[in-house]
Every structure is written in structure tokens, then in C-alpha cells.
Amino acid sequence: MNIKLHTPKSLKTGSGLSSWKQFMLSILATSISIVLTFGTAAVIDNNKKQKEKHEIVMMVMYDMYNSLKSIEEADSSIHKAMHIQLQLAKDTTQFKNLWAELVTNMPTAEYTETTEQIFSSSIETINTVGNVLFTENVAEFYQIRKKYKTLINDSLTNEVINKTSIETVNDALKLQYKSYAMVSGVLLAKMQHLLAQCQQIMDVKDNELEAYRIKREQMENNISEEQQKKIMLIQEVSELQDEIDKAKKKLNLK
């Protein structure tokens, strides 16, 4: 039995082929549109995440940097106290002159825990950064910062002000700064290392951190100026109201 295959008339004339091409072009155009739409959205989303990541990293390292500067000053104050002791040991007649300087020369590492709380309390923030080693280093830095406050700031201040009555040269020379100086030096060196490592991990250069510091401090100064303007405005309005009240009293209005 012979079977004959017949070509459809639409294909013979080419109209079917044309429709097929149009159909394929339509699919291709749709596919490209979908790819461009989702691809563009993905790029925008990725850029947004990278920007958020960079801002979090800079915010944290700025906080670490400021903490270190404050702790470096605290460490310096301990060494200064030891030099005062040395002066006193060499010339005990200087006790009255050096007494106030010795008592008030306490290590005061000042910082806020706002950034630490933001970084540590939000798993979303940590996920945005997306670097385990950076997160661990930051956490360790903040732990050491707390330890510094307890072992150095609070302990030494408590010993000098509350426990010891510095009334004589002997009292002043009995203060043992050596152990505080050694512990302070070790903790400070560790914190400096952690900050440097964080910069290396996240590829943040010194000049970039410095630029961010300047930007933040300018913003903070602007906020302070705005607050000062508000205070002045309130004061001006209050003074004006006082003048109005005084003038009204003279009129004896009922």
C-alpha cells in the first residue's frame, strides 16, 4: 500500500512558515523582556545590598576606630600617672602640686554602645554583611572593650578614689599602676589588631575610613548646630513672650 504525504497548502505558499517565524520571534522577544526585567531587578537589588553592606561595615569600623582613640587616651593617662609618681619619688616636696593631677588623671575610655547594639541584635544586619570572620572579629572587639572598662576604667578609678585615701606622699607612691599599664597595653594591642584585620577582610583602606570619619563628624556637627539653633529660637521666643507679658501688665487689662 502506497502512502502519500501531502504538504499543507499553508506551508507550500510560505504563509505558515511566516507565522511560525513570527511565533518564534514573539517567544524570543518575551524571553528577552523577562530576562531584562528580572536581570535588571537583580542588578538593582544586588547594588542595594552592596550599598547597605558597605554602610554597615563603615559604621561599625568607625565605631571601633573612635573606641580605640578613646582607649589610647586612657592608656596614655596611666603612663602619665606613672610619670607623676616618678616625679614625686624624686622630689617629695612636689606632693601638693602633683596631688590633684594624680587624683584626677584617671583613664576614661568614653564611647556609646549604640552601634554595638544595632550590629549584635539584628541577624539581618549580620546576614547583610555576609562575612563570618568579620562578624567574629567585631564581636571579639566589643567583648574586649567591655573588659577594658571593667578591668581598667572602673577598677583603677575605684582604687584611687574610693579605696585609697591619698593624703601623704606614701599614699601616692603606694598606688600600683604597673599591672594596669600592662593589662591596658595588651588589650589595646589586641583591639588595634582586630580593627586592622577587619579593614583587611572587607578591603577598607585607611583613607576610605578617614573620609567616612570626616563625613560622619561633619554630620554630627551639623546636628549639634541645628540643636543649638532650636535652643536659641526657644530662648528668643520665651524672652519675647516675657516682654509681651510685662507690657500687658502695664495696660491693666481685665
The end-to-end distance, rounded to whole angstroms, is 125 Å
Using the alpha-carbon principal axes, give the shape.
Answer: flat
Q: pLDDT under 50 segments (min length 5)?
A: 3-7
Major sheet size, sense and barrel closure: none
Give the mean pLDDT. 78
Instruction: State the helicity in percent bands.
Output: over 70%
The number of distinct helices, counting runs of at least 4 residues, comes to 9
Q: Which band does the percent of strand residues land in?
A: under 5%
**Series of H and E elements:** HHHHHHHHH
Structural class: mainly alpha
Oligomer: single chain
Q: Please state the CA-atom Rg, rounded to the nearest Å.
A: 35 Å
Number of strands: 0
Describe the protein.
With 254 residues, the protein is an all-alpha fold. Helix content is 84%, strand content 0%. Helix 2 (15-90) runs antiparallel to helix 3 (95-104) and helix 2 packs parallel to helix 6. It is flat, with a radius of gyration of 35 Å.
Q: What is the topological layout?
A:
Elements: H1 9-13, H2 15-90, H3 95-104, H4 114-121, H5 123-129, H6 132-163, H7 169-174, H8 178-201, H9 206-251
Give keywords.
254 residues; mainly alpha; 9 helices; 0% strand; flat; disordered N terminus
In short:
The protein is an all-alpha fold and 254 residues long. It has helices at 9-13, 15-90, 95-104, 114-121, 123-129, 132-163, 169-174, 178-201, 206-251. The chain is flat, with a radius of gyration of 35 Å.
